[in-house]
Design a protein that fits this description.
Chain lengths: 629, 163
């Protein structure tokens, strides 16, 4: 390999003796300067080309160092760290025992009332909708393994968003335009009530395209079979957009001139963007020159979602609703960080653009808003016209090793569907809450009223404690009147008797210089298990608490998944937990107060939760009437 | 002219120099420059690969290393029968690398959803670390497991460039 040092300058055929003479006659040497100029010119061009070629690859600043910076910035802001960072520490801080998962521990992890297929891998929710009496849920599924791959559309139906019945696959990769994957998509209801589905296909040449599909038989309430439009794909990556940066089309909404409009996430260099297309028939589209929105340095935007929320009403809105009472949400899943972000803003129908209310917490900014400050990705909402609600689905992946997933034979669950509304009191965040139908799973309950002093942990006797629903409100008294912290205080769940394993869901209140209280809602999984091959993050975020409000939290515990809701759903945290000892009959519940000198009074109710008995559909299921809510 | 030919040769050499440094440029952004360069330089596909291609070469190295380690694990059953329990766990972990992590990474990187490739690559390092931990400090596989963790780290850095 040549290096520049070995390059010898081309010597022109000049007489070496001439260099020593200081006063040579110029006329005899006139030819040489021109050769030198030509030579240097070529050399400069060659050097310039070298420089261009070596610098066209953008110098990556997103290396390990940036992750650490992002993590510490996140820590300061009190929001969840990029959970992948924790895996890196395994070989360094081995907490001692060598550890092997056995089938008892692994089989306990399966959830009782969260949606999951019978086996194998699942990821993004797809095309959720309500039709002819059934809620439909489709999802990314690998029929062959407990890791991502070979993706098809799984399908399930339910009368109440809780009791799900598995159906055959809705779509599989059987066309050239989705041969390498039937990926994420969304449903739209046309004016006549019929359904169109737009989804991303990975073609036989690995290009990401958008395809149209619709129910083969609209009279079939189970929507078992789907027909793919013969003219697919309906959209290919436009000029300037990478073949692999074009996926996850949204539900369409009506524009004021009667067309349908969709948006699709992508990226240009490191800027996350959302492209806009108009259509009348879902077969041909006009691409807008202007983007719906874009935010620099956020990377690829996956699973973009766009929908209206009411400023004043407490119900959900159809995706096409617009008007003065409405704000619009733009949400995207950030490929770089695996975090779902959203922002509240104003939509301009005339040119298909959207502007955030607060650009400093724009979509994808690390200190911006998230649906969930724990593990929650690829989320998607739909308008439930049956009950007038906007409902949110979120994919909750595993935080354990793939060896464990392979051994237990499955990977991933979905969050319990949540209603989403604008927080009427603050107008600056959304409120999410598990759908009311989940209460149909509540069995016997126990009510408690406990006052616990600083530095105390008290057991809460509820019997089995791995399938429970807790609703609590707390008040603190005493405590530092000077600057200081109150708490943390809350629940120790999925704990064993000796507290060698425990997951903490709690509030932490700080008092700033201005005497203003600032409250954080957190989940600490760092001691949730003795196992050393799982990720054990501490998640948390600031939660708005208005004057006169008590601190309230709700916790759904369902084996290896915990969903926490602070202040009625202003801040939500979902986590995955894999205890080795605190399982089956050994799982206990505790209430704790780690404040230095504040007393906590907690009023709470704990319900045992029934299983949802999710199973494959059979004709008998049509006759079952679900308990009403 | 002879001079023109020489100048042209210089230009070609400069272009060659800059192509080889695509690997160097990429490896500079990984936690282990020397390992990265040695793995990629030694592979004939390396000189003409884009970032995606370089990532796939390294996933292939992970596959090769896992296969080699499994062979070693199998040979240890006879030589060190007292280590059976740890070897069983290691065998399970390394089989996961071959059967789950590697295929997932190859499919994800090829199809342009690199985050799943990152998952598979990270997990290869995790499985190696867990295996190593099984021996409580007296591992006969240390150099192999440490290699896997290092290769996993480098590969992950390159996969992240695709996000």
């Amino acid at each position: 390999m040549a290096s520049s040092e070995s390059l010898l300058p081309v010597t022109s055929q000049h007489d070496p003796l001439s260099e020593s003479s200081s006063n040579s006659i110029p006329e005899t040497r006139r030819g040489k300067p021109i050769h030198l100029v030509v030579y240097s010119g070529f050399l400069l061009i060659a050097l310039y080309i070298t420089l261009i070629v070596t610098h066209t690859r953008p110098v990556r600043t997103k290396g390990a160092n940036d992750e650490k910076t992002a993590a510490s910035r996140a820590r300061l802001a009190g929001v969840s760290e990029k959970s992948n960072d924790h895996i890196w520490k395994i070989s360094d801080d081995r907490e001692g025992e060598a550890f092997a998962w056995n089938n008892t521990m692994l089989s306990w992890q399966r959830t009782a009332f969260h949606f999951q297929p019978e086996k194998n891998w699942m990821n993004d929710p797809d095309g959720p909708l309500f039709y002819k009496g059934w809620y439909h849920f489709f999802y990314q599924y690998n029929p062959n393994a407990a890791v991502w791959g070979d993706i098809v559309w799984g399908h399930a139906v339910s009368k109440d968003l809780i009791h799900w019945l598995h159906l055959p696959f809705a779509m599989v990769p059987d066309q050239w335009y989705d041969a390498n994957g039937v990926w994420t998509g969304s449903a739209t209801f046309l004016d006549d009530g019929s359904i169109v589905m737009l989804y991303t296909g990975s073609t036989d040449k690995f290009v990401q395209v958008q395809n149209l599909a619709y129910p083969e038989d609209p009279n079939d309430p189970l929507l078992l079979k789907w027909t793919k439009f013969s003219g697919n794909p309906v959209l290919e990556p436009p000029p300037g957009i990478g073949d692999k940066d074009f996926r996850d089309p949204t539900t369409a909404w009506k524009t004021s001139d009667g067309k349908w409009r969709i948006t699709i996430g992508s990226k240009i260099n490191r800027t996350g963007i959302s492209l806009v297309y108009d259509t009348v028939d879902f077969k041909t589209y006009e691409k807008h020159d202007i983007l719906l929105h874009h935010v620099p340095n956020t990377g690829m935007w996956e699973c973009v979602d766009f929908y209206p929320v009411s400023k004043t009403k407490h119900h959900g809105l159809d995706t096409s609703v617009n008007g003065p009472d409405v704000r619009h949400i733009v949400k995207a899943s950030m490929d770089d960080t695996r975090i779902d972000h959203f922002a509240i803003g104003t939509y301009y129908d005339s040119n298909g653009t959207w502007v955030p209310d607060n650009p400093s917490i724009d979509v994808g900014i690390s200190t911006g808003l998230r649906y969930d400050y724990g593990k929650f990705y690829a989320s998607k909402t739909f308008y439930d016209q049956h009950k007038g609600r906007r409902i949110l689905w979120g994919w909750i992946g595993e935080s354990d090793s793939e060896a464990a997933d392979v051994q237990k034979g499955w990977s991933s669950v979905q969050a319990i569907p949540r209603t989403v509304v604008l927080d009427k009191k603050t107008r600056k965040n959304l409120i999410q809450w598990p759908v009311k139908e989940i209460e149909s799973l509540r069995l016997r309950s126990k009510k408690f009223h406990k006052k616990i002093g600083p530095g105390t942990v008290v057991p809460v006797d509820v019997g089995p404690a791995d399938q429970i629903d807790i609703e609590a409100d707390c008040e603190t008294s005493g405590g530092a009147t000077l600057r200081g912290a109150l708490g943390p205080f809350g629940f120790s769940i999925l704990a064993d008797q000796s507290l060698s394993e425990q997951t903490l869901v709690y509030f932490y209140v700080t008092k700033g210089k201005d005497s203003k209280l600032k409250t954080f809602f957190c989940t600490d999984t760092s001691k949730s298990t003795m196992a050393n091959d799982v990720v054990k993050p501490v998640y948390g975020s600031f939660v708005p608490v208005l004057k006169g409000e008590k601190l309230t939290m709700r916790i759904l515990v369902d084996h290896s998944i915990v969903e926490g809701f602070g202040q009625g759903g202003r801040t939500c945290i979902t986590s995955r937990v894999y205890p080795t000892k605190a399982i089956y009959g050994a799982t206990k519940l505790f209430l704790f107060n780690n404040a230095i000198d504040a007393t906590v009074t907690a009023s709470f109710k704990v319900w045992q939760m029934n299983s949802a008995f999710i199973h494959p559909y059979s004709s008998v299921d049509d006759l079952v009437v679900p308990s009403s809510t | 002219m002879k001079k023109m030919v020489v100048v042209m040769m210089i230009m070609m050499v400069m272009v060659m120099v800059s192509e080889a440094s695509m690997i160097e440029q990429t490896c500079k952004e990984t936690p282990d420059f020397n390992l990265c360069v040695s793995l990629l330089d030694s592979d004939p596909r390396g000189s003409s690969a884009d970032t995606s291609g370089l990532a796939l070469i390294l996933v292939d190295k992970i596959k090769g290393l896992a296969t080699k380690t499994l062979k070693e694990i199998n040979s240890l059953y006879k030589k060190r029968p007292e280590l059976k329990q740890a070897l069983d766990e290691c065998s399970r972990r390394y089989k996961t690398i071959l059967k789950a992590d590697v295929p997932e990474a190859i499919e994800a990187i090829s199809k342009g959803v690199p985050k799943f490739g990152e998952d598979g690559v990270i997990d290869a390092g995790v499985e190696a670390a867990v295996c190593e931990g099984e021996f409580k400090g007296k591992s006969p596989l240390t150099s192999l497991t440490k290699s896997m963790q290092k290769v996993s780290n480098v590969t992950r850095a390159i996969v992240r460039m695709l996000l």
